Amino acid sequence: MLKRLIIALMVAFICVAPPVLAQEKETEKKQKPTPVSQWVEAENKLLDTLGKPNQKTFFIFRNKHSVMRSIEIVRRDIQNAVKACGKANPNLKKDMNKRFKSWEKAVLPILKTARKFLDTELKEQDAFHVSDYHHVMKLNDKAYEYSESKIEKTPVTTVEACEGLLASMDRTEDKLIGLLQEILLPEEVVRKRLERAEAQ
């Protein structure tokens, strides 16, 4: 499960999402507003004011934000699973708590650095107003929370599942750190990488 999420995060970071099509906009208008439709409307309104290069810059920053948020969700889900596993399997509790604390010590400092770096980059760019970006990202967060609220997450607490979770923390720690290090690349570097990827 975590492996699939990590791959999805990598794809989200590398890919530049296109604006929502006009037909999809019309469909959204006919329906009762939801946090998702409110975010889509606000983002498209902002994108309509930006040229293509500035849209790409916006998507890079949005993807950085999304990756960081997703890593925080992964942390929360692992924490919940570790607690559930410890309760169901007392003999695994000590090892799982110890490994999770080690996982946090490796990941959280880089996440904190990545957040500061993103804030600095946003202040230095001139592709869009930072206040507009923050407005859209708040709506993006609400849309994510709304979508996630429709999914019930219940950790599986069999011995095999909990041992698998323990092993997955060993395997994914480096991958998550690698993702965060990608976020620490300047926007210009990310954009050039994307342009090379598109050319190929």
Describe the protein's architecture and organization.
The protein has 200 residues and is mainly α. 82% of the residues lie in helices and 0% in strands. It contains eight helices and no strands. The protein has helices spanning 2-14, 22-30, 35-47, 52-88, 90-124, 130-149, 159-183, 187-199. Helix 1 runs antiparallel to helix 4 (52-88) and helix 4 runs antiparallel to helix 7.
Give the tally of β-strands: 0
Q: What's the story with the biggest beta sheet?
A: none
Name the shape in a single word: globular
Low-confidence stretches: 5-22
Could you report the average pLDDT, rounded to the nearest whole number?
A: 85
Please identify the structural class as seen in this structure: mainly alpha
Please estimate the helix content: over 70%
List the helices and strands in order. Answer: HHHHHHHH
Cα distance, first to last residue? 31 Å
Strand content bin: under 5%
Oligomeric category: single chain
* Radius of gyration from CA coordinates: 19 Å
The total of helices stands at: 8
